[in-house]
Structure to design on (548 residues):
């Protein structure tokens, strides 16, 4: 019973702390949708496989929020027809490549100058690699069905496969008509309704993710993970698992890492700071509004492998 | 049409859900619940979010009568239920249970700090000081007055401890001091105590260690702000 009440308190802490950032993310996504007509700016984004995620990653500087707030913005980007690379680059890199997170990392580790460039660089490389990897999948296998539907409404028909359109002429030589590129600006009332529904949907998923994180971290002794801290490879894996379970916001995770920085290898420390903003239990539910379960699985496995490699490399170089 | 379907089609459901979550956040601030869950740096953000949600609920309420649409997703009902549960059952964590599951890896002080005279130091300041100046003899005989909860870890003597939090309870880290409990005393886990006494040096497992020697022990209620940054 004591454990259950502790888990209940951790759940409330996680949820109440994350909720304002989710609201902020939905608000920014809504404002962006209202201020800038969809197709106008999306058409200017580069579609190159390398440039698109770079642009997405750099967009993080415009949204100083943690990973919970980034999900609705990334969804809005993709729903508006932005290149997949831009959406994913933003989703995976922006939780680290933003002024608040960089400042908090510097404040927590002013003496570890290598961490101040290794963290943003690592986040950037992971975002680039994940964006390119996910780009190999067909959109129908990659994006959540509701998002796919919404995205197709803003895509020129020439970019949608014949079988995916649901209707069309077979064998005709007539040019494929484009959808109208100018989208009318939503009225404030409609926009508020859309944003409210989006917030409540995401909130449900945040509730589920927070519950999962609270249960796992109450019943899984943290000492089991940190006990592995001294061995190079095991320490990286242990801190990756810790990041997965803790589900703490990227804006404060550096201060938390400070607590055990002396007990773990440098690679493990970096792994903790890199993996949490991309994959954690609290995010598991939120990602379902963007990706199919298969794509979420691929993201989790690929991100973990990349972080493990980076952690190993840092330990090897003894930074 | 079943009750659930009618409920999901109700135009009042969305403003109700928004209002309930908004009220939960505001109430958490007003009732002091946030002091038990989050670092104080986040309190203002939570309060603003609560006020914004309440405002959104009022706006949605105005147009609810005219609104027609499909059923609200089942998840909204779930989140509404969770908000009600959170209002009905406030958090009552066992700090001792929480801390027993975590290592003493106390973060550094959030800003440059100068240590106060011994009798004015909090328990957390004592722990930080002892970590930065590990020679136990430096502090032998210093008077102290500290408060904290009894932390009972299996197989270890009970300590007096506080929890430090950077974000929320999920990252709470214990800071504990060993106590030379008087003969016959039986410290109860989670009980909040105020101890006046002196800092001594005792041999614990062959290592000279700073141990609190109580002159008086008083049971106190849990402080309004039990978490430290």
């Amino acid at each position: 019973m004591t454990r259950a009440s502790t888990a209940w308190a951790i759940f409330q802490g996680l949820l109440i702390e994350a909720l304002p950032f989710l609201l902020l993310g939905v608000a920014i996504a809504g404002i962006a949708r209202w201020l800038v007509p969809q197709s106008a700016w999306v058409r200017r984004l580069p579609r190159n496989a390398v440039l698109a995620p770079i642009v997405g990653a750099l967009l993080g500087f415009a949204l100083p929020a943690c990973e919970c707030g980034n999900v609705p913005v990334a969804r809005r980007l993709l729903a508006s027809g932005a290149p997949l690379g831009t959406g994913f680059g933003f989703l995976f890199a922006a939780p680290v490549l933003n002024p608040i997170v960089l400042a908090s990392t510097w404040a927590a580790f002013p003496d570890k100058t290598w961490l101040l460039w290794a963290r943003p660089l690592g986040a950037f490389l992971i975002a680039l690699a994940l964006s390119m990897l996910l780009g190999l999948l067909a959109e129908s296998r990659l994006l959540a069905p509701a998002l796919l539907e919404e995205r197709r409404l803003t895509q020129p028909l020439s970019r949608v496969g014949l079988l995916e359109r649901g209707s069309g002429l077979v064998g005709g030589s007539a040019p494929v008509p484009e959808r109208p590129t100018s989208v009318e600006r939503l009225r404030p009332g409609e926009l508020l309704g859309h944003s409210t529904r989006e917030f409540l949907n995401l909130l449900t998923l945040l509730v589920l993710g927070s519950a999962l994180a609270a249960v796992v971290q109450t019943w899984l002794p943290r000492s089991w993970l940190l006990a592995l801290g001294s061995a190079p490879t095991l320490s990286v894996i242990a801190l990756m698992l810790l990041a997965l379970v803790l589900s703490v916001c990227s804006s404060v995770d550096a201060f938390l890492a400070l607590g055990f920085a002396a007990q773990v290898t440098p690679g493990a420390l970096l792994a903790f700071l890199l993996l949490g903003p991309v994959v954690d239990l609290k995010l598991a539910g939120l990602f379902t509004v963007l990706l199919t379960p298969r794509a979420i699985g691929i993201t989790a496995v690929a991100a973990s492998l990349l972080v493990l490699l980076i952690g190993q490399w840092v330990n090897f170089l003894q930074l | 049409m079943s009750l659930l379907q009618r409920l999901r089609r109700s135009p009042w459901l969305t403003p109700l859900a928004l209002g309930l979550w908004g009220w939960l956040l505001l109430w958490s601030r007003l009732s002091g619940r946030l002091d038990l869950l989050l670092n104080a740096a986040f309190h203002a953000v939570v309060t603003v979010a609560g006020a914004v949600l309440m405002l959104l609920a009022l706006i949605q309420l105005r147009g609810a009568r005219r609104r027609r649409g499909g059923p609200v997703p089942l998840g909204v009902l779930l989140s509404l239920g969770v908000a009600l549960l959170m209002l009905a059952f406030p958090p009552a964590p066992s700090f001792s249970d929480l801390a027993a599951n975590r290592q003493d890896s106390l973060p550094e002080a959030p800003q440059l700090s100068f240590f106060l005279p011994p009798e004015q130091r909090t328990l957390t300041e004592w722990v930080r000081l002892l970590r930065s100046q590990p020679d136990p003899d430096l502090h032998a005989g210093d008077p102290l007055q500290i408060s904290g909860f009894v932390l009972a870890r299996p197989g270890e003597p009970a300590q007096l401890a506080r929890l430090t939090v950077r974000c929320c309870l999920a990252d709470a880290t214990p800071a504990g001091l060993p106590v030379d409990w008087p003969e016959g005393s039986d410290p109860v886990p989670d009980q909040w105590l105020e101890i006046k006494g002196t800092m001594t040096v005792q041999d614990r497992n062959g290592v000279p260690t700073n141990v609190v020697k109580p002159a008086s022990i008083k049971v106190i209620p849990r402080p309004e702000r039990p978490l430290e940054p």
